[in-house]
Amino acid sequence: MTGRLRGILITDPRWRKGSTRQVGRRYVPHHSGAAGVYAPADAGSARQGEDHDRMQHLFAAMRRHAGVTALAVVAAVVATGCQAITPPAAVTEQGQQISDLYNLVFVVAAIVFFLVEGLIVWSVIRYRRRPGQNALPAQTHGNLALELVWTAIPLITVVALFFASWGVLQSVDARDESKAEVKVEVVAYQWQWKFGYPDDAIEIYGTADAPPQLVLPIGKRAQVTLVAQDVNHAFYVPQFLFQRDAVPGHVNVFQFTPNKLGTFSGQCSHFCGLMHHAMVFSVKVVSEADYAAWLVASKPATP
Fold first, then answer.
1. How many CB atoms lie within 10 A of CB 53?
2. 34 has which bridge partners?
3. pLDDT single digits (tens) 269-299
4. DSSP letter at 301?
């Protein structure tokens, strides 16, 4: 080679005619197709080449790990079979409000998920690199209208869900002692429960072999006064869709209205020691007539 050519003759078979791999220099293919010359590239061309290389490496990595990603997605979907997608059916008026809120959030989240994932899939397919396309696609830097849209929509969605959640929380936590038709005192202790009906002088103690049962009339607003004698406990009935903490030195008062007949399992949902697993109970919701009969049968005998 003679003259002032400032480059390197390429004979490596990995470099073919039309190759666009660049590392700060521009490849000038030789007409023979077997060799070419590196000539100095300007700064813009060098940056474009580096961007192109990075994109190529990214897509290659995505292709290499596609199988692992697919397996991870399948495993995550299978793992969801360990529990229900939706919460248990609510058995109180307050629980129904929580269930309705959950359904609202779920629908909104599903819409956002499918919209975002759909756009991602569409973009990958629509703008995929096709054979023979070696040039870097046109780059867009900033789109005010689009940025305003994708900022405003999430903001409006989050604010709307906030006020919906706040309204449900206020309703569920609301209590008016004058409206309470049944009053119950619940005492949590290691590792059992005591249910008391102060207006009827009834006390029910549980044992490991015979867990206690809280009996309530359907459609009547119940007020529970919850306390703990020793360590932290929690009053939890899954079908109520909420739990209440029992903390030593603190009185937790809440109200709810059962609206479905049946017997519902409950438990302490805070680990409270060696026999935590035995700290279970049940709530039985009966008709008003059955509740009146139960009160008569459960009252202590008059001496």
1. 14
2. none
3. 999 999 999 999 999 999 999 999 999 999 8
4. P
Question: Among 20-34, 47-61, 215-229, which range has the highest average pLDDT?
Answer: 215-229
**3-class DSSP state of 149:** helix
Homologous superfamily assigned to 177-298: Cupredoxins -  blue copper proteins (2.60.40.420)
Q: What is the pTM of this model?
A: 0.67
Task: Decide: 278 and 259 in contact? Cβ < 8 Å.
Answer: no
Question: CATH 1.10.287.90: which residues of the chain?
Answer: 84-135+143-173
The two three-digit tokens of residue 120, written as one number: 């991602």
Q: What is the mean pLDDT of residues 26-47?
A: 48
Q: Are 241 and 98 in contact (CB under 8 A)?
A: yes
Determine the pLDDT at residue 139: 81
Could you tell me the fold of the domain covering 84-135+143-173? Helix Hairpins (1.10.287)
The tokens describing 68, both together, are: 């692992």
Q: What strands lie across the sheet with 242-246, from one edge to the other?
A: 213-217, 280-286, 262-268, 233-237, 242-246
* Residues 6+ positions from 9 with CB-CB distance below 8 Å: 1, 35, 37
Q: Indicate the Cα dihedral angle 112, 113, 116, 118, nearest 10°.
A: -120
CA dihedral 18, 20, 22, 26 (to 10 degrees): 50
Kindly report, as residue ranges, where domains of CATH 2.60.40.420 are found in the chain: 177-298
Higher pLDDT, 278 or 9: 278
CA–CA distances in Å: residue 284 to residues 212, 213, 218, 254? 11, 7, 9, 18
Q: Taking residues 55-63, what's their average pLDDT?
A: 70
Give the separation between CA 97 and CA 92, rounded to whole angstroms: 9
pLDDT number for residue 146: 87
3 state SS for 73-115:
HHHHHHHHHHCCCCCCCCCEHHHHHHHHHHHHHHHHHHHHHHH
